[in-house]
Amino acid sequence: MKTLYTSETPKLIGKDVTLQGWVWTIRDHKKVVFIDLTDRSGIVQVVGGPDLAKLSVEDVIEVKGLVKKRPDHLTNDKIPTGAIEIEAHDIKVLSRSEPLPFDISKDEIDVTLPTLLDFRSLSLRHPKVRSIFQIQEVIIDAFRRGLKERGFVEFQSPVIISQTAEGGAEVFEVKYFNYKAFLAQSPQFYKQIMVGVFEKVFTVNKTLRAEPSMTTRHLTEATTLDAEMGFIDSWIDVMDTAEYIIKYIFGQINYACKDILEQHKTTTPKVAKEIPRLKLRKAQQIIFDRTGRDNRNEPDLEPEDEREICKWAIEERQSELVFITHYPVSKRPFYTFEDPNDPGYTLSFDLLGRGIEWLTGGQRIHNLKKIIENAKNRGIDIKKSELYLQAFRYGMPPHGGFSFGSERITMKVLNLDNIREASLFPRDMERIDVHLPTYFKNHETKKENSKTEEK
Amino acid sequence: MKTLYTSETPKLIGKDVTLQGWVWTIRDHKKVVFIDLTDRSGIVQVVGGPDLAKLSVEDVIEVKGLVKKRPDHLTNDKIPTGAIEIEAHDIKVLSRSEPLPFDISKDEIDVTLPTLLDFRSLSLRHPKVRSIFQIQEVIIDAFRRGLKERGFVEFQSPVIISQTAEGGAEVFEVKYFNYKAFLAQSPQFYKQIMVGVFEKVFTVNKTLRAEPSMTTRHLTEATTLDAEMGFIDSWIDVMDTAEYIIKYIFGQINYACKDILEQHKTTTPKVAKEIPRLKLRKAQQIIFDRTGRDNRNEPDLEPEDEREICKWAIEERQSELVFITHYPVSKRPFYTFEDPNDPGYTLSFDLLGRGIEWLTGGQRIHNLKKIIENAKNRGIDIKKSELYLQAFRYGMPPHGGFSFGSERITMKVLNLDNIREASLFPRDMERIDVHLPTYFKNHETKKENSKTEEK
């Protein structure tokens, strides 16, 4: 089993080593050939005879050789192993690569996003692309760790559900033996049920939404970070916990991913000691005062409003994140708690940052009658969601929670242009690994061809 | 926000406290009433006046009171808080419960499994039921932690897939806009792709299988623990890692869940210093020698064979776990590596314990041509799995991996009778939260009734 990574070679000058990885670049000087060998830890220069020129980029090889200090005038400050090189004694090819469709050895891959995704198994090997998913796992892990430190318990929420009380049109349908089932758009009902079991819970979960739009910030399949907590004094407890956890996540990123932030020329968002908290109506007034755009009676923020209030938060409160609270009852799900002191508005909040929404949360109704009544008023047949109602039938504490999209956090921390870049294998209306319209067009054509051949 | 748990009260004798939780039992002695208050940490006795008798089991309450030492003759050794009680000053009802369908205050809930599941939101609150999911999260967390310690990187594998190369009939179909898509039965293809990116990877993932059977050990939705590793010297590296991680998991259970193991009157399986490793043919010979049952030419072990070889491992090797290796090529997926020294048999293994399979794994083919050829021989249209082939087209190292079912581990560690007990919200042919045939029968009836009413 591989035991040595290329990044570890500088401390082994004068030692014989065995390295395994992929051929990254080949520089053929005829008598002497240089290759850069890459693995997940970085790259190292290997020097050898003309045989090395027979290798191809992305061939998988094993190199046995001597770690040597390079002459001072030949060191490369741009890579951590730039002061040494491997003098190859023996090279074994473990696996051959075909010619690449594009060059992946530059700092940036110079192709369009669709091409990047069409060649996902290759493009993910690029260090800058790969780093996106290193930081994403730090984010997900920090979410878990930060909540565990506060006594939250993880649980596994189901993907297949039998009813669609929460969603409407944007739900995927599954053929479930002789029944019709659906894919969960969120673990909402289950995390509330679990408050009755573990009081404070979280779940990292695949959520599936049949988003019929092709924006730069929606996916049909996302990894969401959900938390829910019982025995709250008020909805402020929930917002405080959301603030704690996003700061905890930033802390972990800054601790573990300095090099990745540098590679992407960015930093984690600057946050105020307390993230500003504004009622929606107040935010709309600020936007009106700043821009003259009068959306003061709208039930939600438009994308340009989100960008404007984020600008305000930076300029006036030195914070790249801002909470917007008190969305109108009509814009929030039926289980959202109405503010007794501000009727018509809910004890709910969104967290915005760098121009878009990161998180949504709030207090939930814990009274069975009120839930049934609210659902009925919205035309939702909540009686179909038997286990959900059951939780309230047998006593539920006051509770609330919140939900992050891990891809949104990744995207905005790294300032990526498109959320598809922040998903390993992004799915949208037109893509499941491959671009579906193209794929089926080609596939149909092939089918017809093969039919012709059969004749 | 709640800050004090019932389990913390014994160290607060003489102090005024505020506790929140559910009413567990009520003992009405007229002038004096005792209630047991429960939360996720345990129970504590509350004593008060006749007002307490108005409460119902599972009411959610807040108790303000004084922690008092009980007289010596009234202590209860069976609970950790049995030496104290809370003298209630003030009780506030946060939420009311309806009468329960069955008693949940006993050591065991005395109802059938279907009833337990029909009332899942309630039955999960029982300490012994709840504990199953505490241990399950310790198992999942240990899987993550143990592999991270060995340099594995976590990744998020998709649920929706476009092709079904791996599965056959047992795959769920999804209506995906204008296309037909499927639910992933395993993260197999994606974890192999990710070996090309991070070399050593793991994923905790929902896997969906349209199991048309109603056994005690199959679910349609499971949380599987998958790992895959590149640059192996041989398949033995993979089996060694599987052995390491299951022992690591047992270590974490023994460290963190002593009380739960006691509650379920069990221990983690006893394992030998090295878990015995037997070729399938050898295992069949042993079974034949021990029982006279001649399955020596069968391509797999029958359930009774699995039980018998587990008995052998305990009796002859003092190990409750045993690896069975070298399943025939025909019984393993097309990507499985054939043993060059034992043609017709694969470099694959299952881990059996306490009578059933816990894990399956092996080395995979990393040569593109061979994969395409094998798939073709099995009638699999692998060219549809474009990203999978792409990984091999651009150089893949020798690699292998394994897959556990978290519910299987939970079930067998706790000696549960049915795997449904080891899934929070188990799904099978006939159940998604509710029992589907019953539900739809009632629902249809209601529909007809409402039609009648409309007339």
Automatic annotation (TrEMBL), chains A, B:
Its EC number is 6.1.1.12. Residues 133-426 form the Aminoacyl-transfer RNA synthetases class-II family profile domain. GO terms for biological process: aspartyl-tRNA aminoacylation. One of its GO terms (molecular function) is aspartate-tRNA ligase activity. Keywords: Aminoacyl-tRNA synthetase, ATP-binding, Cytoplasm, Ligase, Nucleotide-binding, Protein biosynthesis. One of its GO terms (cellular component) is cytosol. It catalyses: tRNA(Asp) + L-aspartate + ATP = L-aspartyl-tRNA(Asp) + AMP + diphosphate. Residues 188-191 are annotated as: Aspartate. ATP binds at residues 209-211, 217-219, 357, 405-408. Belongs to the class-II aminoacyl-tRNA synthetase family. Type 2 subfamily. This is Aspartate--tRNA ligase. It comes from Candidatus Roizmanbacteria bacterium RIFCSPHIGHO2_01_FULL_39_12b. The gene is aspS.
